């Protein structure tokens, strides 16, 4: 029986099995195989009950496959070199971003209606440099150390930001007070189990309210190879990959957090990079060493955001009207469909 | 322009003031806008048919003007000023034989008669959310709003409402139940009225009974219900809420029959086709979607059409070509007949939570009856 065999015999058995699968032609090459009992072609490695032997056989199988793959690759490379210029172009591997389902709401840069819509919406005042942003940062009730430090660091990153303790106040009462003191944004960091996990970004004079899920928060002291603390200069803002109409709205929401005239002397840049519906926030300082090389240092906190809902009007989760709500079962069913 | 507007079967109003027409057969949308005015205060908040033949669309804007758009010519023909911004937005526009009825948020309901400068004014209370006209008795109008219970007014006797709804009894904590009527609809062929509230309740009132409290009450979801539509057949109502959930409720027992998928933003407009089981919805997520009421799927022959501005209002005028492809049996004969006819259909105007007016045409039922008779005759003739 198979179980009584030793290592070498197992290897021979394996060869025999392969030989049998290849066909009667190869049998003549390996005479020893003819004396072995014929293995049923439906034999699979998982049927070997002995763990050591099974693992060995599997390892051998993998090595064989790897060898074959390398040979194939070498062959292809030789063919490609042989053909030279006439070689077919290299195939691009499929990634989820490549295979993304075309979103109908992708904004055409020449769309007049969208341009008009954006020219007259709530954020147009910033982009026309009429108003400077003033941000109020607060947390949910009774924040823990990590959240408090996160808020402080955010306040250094965002110019003209003020941190206040929440002290159990209702947001609906905070909002009219903010409006009367000329704040333009209200940012509430929600905390769960001593870790920040949510953010509500409310544009103040009756603007849209976005609710995000916050994850992967890294405070300044946890950053490797970071630079010195950020200065008071206004940073530049980079918004990557906000292509759809919803993405445009959110992008403008982020852009209006920062004043519209960046101070290039400060060499600081805040990046909001959208990939697969996750928005990655990074804060760097850059320096051009020569025309082609840039050095960057990461300062400041880093976190990722995921949009949960966008509501028209200021924060009113019960009676407000939602412009976009993330519905997990409908929207997350396709791995290649993204909304931002 | 004219030929484009003639093929449009669905009309939508957007927040930027542009009237959009959608041709479902061609699956394309066209913008019709007044040259001078593309601004936020021209935001369309009410739409209704100007006449029974559906050749004119009346568009109500935030700044208080009512524009007339001719579907045959494809241009805006007239503008009337029927109020101003201080009074609030239009919560409903309706048309009777020779007069225009408008209602604004502050509660002022005016009847503008053509030809004369007199207007009949009624104050329906404060903070009105919706005003609708009874499609069969066109001089009757229902209004409702926040802390403003449902009232049915007869325009020939404008002093007092014919019917005022009474608030439901105190709840189990003995607290007064707040009132917020967001949309109203008259159930055809009966006196009953369906309302949906901002506290996620759907109520049916029957003015013919002495009971002023609702005859039926049902709840759906946890979010305010913004709009309502009545499909053909008298036992169902479709409601939409601010979270993008659309549900079909049964009016016999008040149970939820099913929900429609797809919408991601607040539902601003819902409208059912009068004869075929189709439902169209539009909302703040900038899409127009057509759903099938039978199997609750999104009908494939009209994929969601994207608009680049928020949709406030919309209504239908379905051309039968759309429906003809669904009809089975006796294909050729039926198709020829149907191509000749234009079906009137309801309009729904849904805005940023403001008015909607729905008009159902009784002609269709007559036409279907006639068609059926003709078919039977032909069948007999063959035999």
From TrEMBL, chain A:
<dbReference type="InterPro" id="IPR007109">
    <property type="entry name" value="Brix"/>
</dbReference>
<feature type="domain" description="Brix">
    <location>
        <begin position="133"/>
        <end position="316"/>
    </location>
</feature>
<protein>
    <recommendedName>
        <fullName>Ribosome production factor 1</fullName>
    </recommendedName>
</protein>
<dbReference type="InterPro" id="IPR044281">
    <property type="entry name" value="IMP4/RPF1"/>
</dbReference>
<feature type="compositionally biased region" description="Basic and acidic residues">
    <location>
        <begin position="14"/>
        <end position="25"/>
    </location>
</feature>
<dbReference type="GO" id="GO:0042134">
    <property type="term" value="F:rRNA primary transcript binding"/>
</dbReference>
<dbReference type="Pfam" id="PF04427">
    <property type="entry name" value="Brix"/>
</dbReference>
<dbReference type="GO" id="GO:0000460">
    <property type="term" value="P:maturation of 5.8S rRNA"/>
</dbReference>
<keyword id="KW-0690">Ribosome biogenesis</keyword>
<dbReference type="GO" id="GO:0030687">
    <property type="term" value="C:preribosome, large subunit precursor"/>
</dbReference>
<keyword id="KW-0698">rRNA processing</keyword>
<feature type="region of interest" description="Disordered">
    <location>
        <begin position="1"/>
        <end position="93"/>
    </location>
</feature>
<comment type="function">
    <text>May be required for ribosome biogenesis.</text>
</comment>
<dbReference type="GO" id="GO:0000470">
    <property type="term" value="P:maturation of LSU-rRNA"/>
</dbReference>
<feature type="compositionally biased region" description="Basic and acidic residues">
    <location>
        <begin position="79"/>
        <end position="93"/>
    </location>
</feature>
<feature type="compositionally biased region" description="Basic residues">
    <location>
        <begin position="1"/>
        <end position="13"/>
    </location>
</feature>
<dbReference type="GO" id="GO:0005730">
    <property type="term" value="C:nucleolus"/>
</dbReference>
<feature type="compositionally biased region" description="Basic residues">
    <location>
        <begin position="63"/>
        <end position="78"/>
    </location>
</feature>
From TrEMBL, chain B:
<keyword id="KW-0539">Nucleus</keyword>
<dbReference type="Pfam" id="PF00400">
    <property type="entry name" value="WD40"/>
</dbReference>
<feature type="compositionally biased region" description="Basic and acidic residues">
    <location>
        <begin position="349"/>
        <end position="373"/>
    </location>
</feature>
<dbReference type="GO" id="GO:0042273">
    <property type="term" value="P:ribosomal large subunit biogenesis"/>
</dbReference>
<dbReference type="InterPro" id="IPR037379">
    <property type="entry name" value="WDR74/Nsa1"/>
</dbReference>
<dbReference type="InterPro" id="IPR001680">
    <property type="entry name" value="WD40_rpt"/>
</dbReference>
<dbReference type="GO" id="GO:0016070">
    <property type="term" value="P:RNA metabolic process"/>
</dbReference>
<protein>
    <recommendedName>
        <fullName>WD repeat-containing protein 74</fullName>
    </recommendedName>
</protein>
<dbReference type="InterPro" id="IPR036322">
    <property type="entry name" value="WD40_repeat_dom_sf"/>
</dbReference>
<keyword id="KW-0677">Repeat</keyword>
<dbReference type="GO" id="GO:0005730">
    <property type="term" value="C:nucleolus"/>
</dbReference>
<dbReference type="InterPro" id="IPR015943">
    <property type="entry name" value="WD40/YVTN_repeat-like_dom_sf"/>
</dbReference>
<comment type="subunit">
    <text>Isoform 1 interacts (through WDR repeats) with NVL; the interaction is independent of RNA or pre-60S ribosome particles. Isoform 2 does not interact with NVL. Interacts with MTREX; the interaction dissociation in a late stage of rRNA synthesis is required for appropriate maturation of pre-60S particles and depends on the ATPase activity of NVL.</text>
</comment>
<keyword id="KW-0597">Phosphoprotein</keyword>
<feature type="region of interest" description="Disordered">
    <location>
        <begin position="334"/>
        <end position="383"/>
    </location>
</feature>
<dbReference type="GO" id="GO:0030687">
    <property type="term" value="C:preribosome, large subunit precursor"/>
</dbReference>
<feature type="compositionally biased region" description="Acidic residues">
    <location>
        <begin position="334"/>
        <end position="344"/>
    </location>
</feature>
<keyword id="KW-0853">WD repeat</keyword>
<keyword id="KW-0488">Methylation</keyword>
<feature type="compositionally biased region" description="Basic residues">
    <location>
        <begin position="374"/>
        <end position="383"/>
    </location>
</feature>
């Amino acid at each position: 029986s198979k179980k009584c065999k030793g290592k070498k015999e197992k290897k021979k058995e394996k060869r025999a099995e392969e030989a049998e699968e290849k066909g009667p032609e190869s049998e003549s090459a390996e005479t020893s195989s003819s004396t072995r009992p014929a293995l049923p072609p439906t034999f699979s490695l998982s049927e070997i009950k002995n763990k050591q032997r099974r693992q060995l056989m599997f390892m051998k199988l993998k090595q064989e496959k790897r060898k074959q793959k390398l040979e194939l690759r070498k062959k292809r490379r030789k063919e490609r070199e042989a053909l030279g210029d006439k070689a077919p172009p290299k195939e691009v591997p499929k990634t989820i971003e490549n295979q993304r389902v075309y979103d109908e709401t992708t904004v055409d840069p020449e769309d007049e209606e969208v341009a008009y819509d954006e020219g007259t919406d709530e954020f147009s005042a910033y982009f026309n440099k009429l108003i400077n942003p003033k941000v109020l940062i607060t947390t949910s009730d009774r924040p823990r150390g990590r959240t408090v430090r996160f808020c402080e660091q955010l306040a250094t990153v965002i110019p003209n930001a003020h941190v206040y303790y929440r002290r159990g106040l209702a947001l609906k009462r905070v909002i009219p007070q903010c409006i009367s003191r000329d704040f333009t944004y209200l940012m509430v960091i929600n905390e769960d189990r001593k870790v920040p996990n949510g953010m509500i970004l409310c544009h103040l004079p009756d603007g849209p309210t976005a609710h995000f899920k916050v994850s992967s928060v890294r405070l300044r002291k946890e950053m490797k190879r970071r630079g010195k603390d950020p200065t008071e200069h206004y940073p530049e803002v980079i918004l990557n990959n906000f292509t759809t109409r919803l993405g445009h709205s959110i992008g403008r929401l982020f852009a209006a957090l920062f004043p519209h005239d960046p101070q290039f002397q400060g060499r600081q840049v805040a990046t909001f990079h959208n990939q697969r519906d996750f928005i990655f926030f990074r804060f760097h300082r850059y320096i051009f060493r020569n025309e082609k090389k840039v050095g960057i240092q990461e300062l400041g906190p880093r976190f990722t955001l995921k949009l949960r809902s966008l509501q028209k009007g200021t924060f009113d989760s019960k009676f407000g009207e939602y412009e976009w709500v993330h519905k997990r079962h409908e929207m997350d069913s396709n791995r290649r469909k993204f909304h931002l | 322009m004219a030929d484009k507007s003639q093929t449009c079967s669905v009309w939508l109003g957007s927040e930027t003031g542009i009237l959009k027409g959608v041709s479902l057969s061609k699956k394309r949308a066209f913008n019709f806008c007044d040259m001078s005015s593309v601004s936020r205060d021209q935001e369309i908040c009410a739409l209704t048919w100007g006449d029974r033949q559906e050749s004119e669309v009346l568009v109500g804007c935030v700044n208080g003007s009512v524009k007339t758009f001719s579907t045959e010519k494809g241009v805006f023909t007239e503008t009337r000023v029927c109020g101003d911004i201080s009074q609030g937005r239009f919560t409903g526009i309706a048309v009777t034989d020779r007069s225009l009825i408008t209602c604004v948020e502050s509660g002022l309901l005016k009847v503008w008669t053509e030809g004369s400068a007199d207007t009949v004014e009624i104050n329906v209370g404060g903070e009105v959310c919706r005003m609708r006209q009874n499609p069969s008795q066109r001089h009757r109008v229902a209004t409702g709003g926040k802390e403003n219970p449902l009232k049915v007014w007869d325009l020939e006797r404008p002093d007092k409402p014919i019917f005022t709804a009474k608030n439901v009894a105190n709840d189990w904590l003995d607290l007064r139940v707040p009132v917020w009527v967001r949309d109203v609809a008259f159930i055809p062929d009966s006196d009953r009225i369906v309302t949906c509230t901002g506290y996620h309740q759907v109520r049916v009132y029957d003015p013919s009974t002495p009971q002023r409290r609702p005859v039926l009450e049902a709840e759906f979801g946890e979010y305010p219900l913004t709009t309502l539509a009545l499909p053909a057949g008298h036992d169902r109502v479709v409601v939409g809420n601010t979270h993008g959930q659309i549900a079909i409720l049964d009016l016999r027992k008040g149970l939820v029959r099913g929900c429609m998928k797809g919408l991601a933003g607040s539902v601003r407009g819902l409208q059912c086709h009068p004869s075929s089981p189709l439902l169209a919805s539009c909302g703040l997520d900038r899409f127009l979607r057509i759903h099938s009421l039978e199997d609750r799927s999104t009908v494939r022959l009209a994929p969601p059409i994207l608009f680049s501005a928020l949709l406030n209002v919309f209504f239908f005028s379905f051309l039968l070509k759309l429906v003809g492809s669904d009809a089975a049996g006796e294909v050729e004969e039926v198709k020829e007949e149907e191509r000749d006819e234009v079906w009137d259909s309801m309009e729904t105007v849904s805005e940023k939570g403001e008015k909607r007016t729905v008009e159902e045409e009784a002609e269709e039922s007559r036409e279907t009856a006639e068609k059926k008779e003709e078919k039977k005759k032909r069948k007999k003739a063959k035999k």
